[in-house]
Amino acid sequence: MEVHNYALFAFDATWTLIRSLQQLCTSKINISSSCLSFNGSSYCFNRHFIHSDLLLDAVSRTEFLGVSGLIQFSNDVTDRITGLYYSAKNVQPSLNGLSFVPVLEYFHPTDWKIPTKENIIVWPGKTLTPPSGRAILEGVNLRIGVLESAPFTIVDKVIDLSGQTTIQYRGYVLDLIELLQQKMNFIPIIELAPSNLTYNEFVQS
Fold first, then answer.
1. Cα separation of 29 and 61, whole Å?
2. Domain range 141-204, its CATH number among 3.30.43.10, 3.40.190.10, 3.30.930.10, 1.10.3720.10
3. Counting beta carbons within 10 angstroms of the beta carbon of residue 20, is it exposed (0 to 12), middle (13 to 18) or buried (19 or more)?
4. What average pLDDT values come out for the chain (205 residues) when binned by 10 residues?
5. What SUPFAM superfamilies has UniProt attached to this entry (predicted)?
6. Of 79, 21, 69, 12, nearest in space to 49 by CA
7. How many CB atoms lie within 10 A of CB 71?
8. 109: cis peptide before it, omega within 30°?
9. Contact between residue 62 and residue 71 where contact means Cβ atoms under 8 Å apart
């Protein structure tokens, strides 16, 4: 099942509100009314949360690792403080088939680090010994899919003297592919994705 990015952000936003309200209601601040009190009419847009300032203070102190990354706030910025979080996971056999075990974590702006709960890495062949070599792409045919999007990928139709039409590509993406080809000596097979495909359909194709 594919989960949309907005669903991840919505979950973290909801969980932030829950944790902040929990902090507010369990704090020892002298609150004469209920910590969840509102004033105004029963109509939702005319109701106001009485302790909004205290709630914002609780939100600013909230910090946790959410499904969209590290959640942390500051009065000085409108975006999340550490904007990037990645988890490198090792695919390992398990009783239920395959499991994805985190072995490295990355928090911007620091570097990769081993998780607090360190997990072993199972290498191909179900061995715990890291391979001594590395994958080499020299002479390997690589299918590279591109999307037409100027100035990154520009598609030109060229008609030769015999009337034959050929497709030529240029742009920043093609310059990058050419540079990588020179460095790694692979054989690129450029394929243009149909314009009616979504990004996910393009990746899966």
1. 15
2. 3.40.190.10
3. buried
4. 76 92 79 73 74 86 84 76 76 85 79 82 88 84 91 91 90 93 94 83 73
5. Periplasmic binding protein-like I (SSF53822)
6. 21
7. 21
8. yes
9. yes
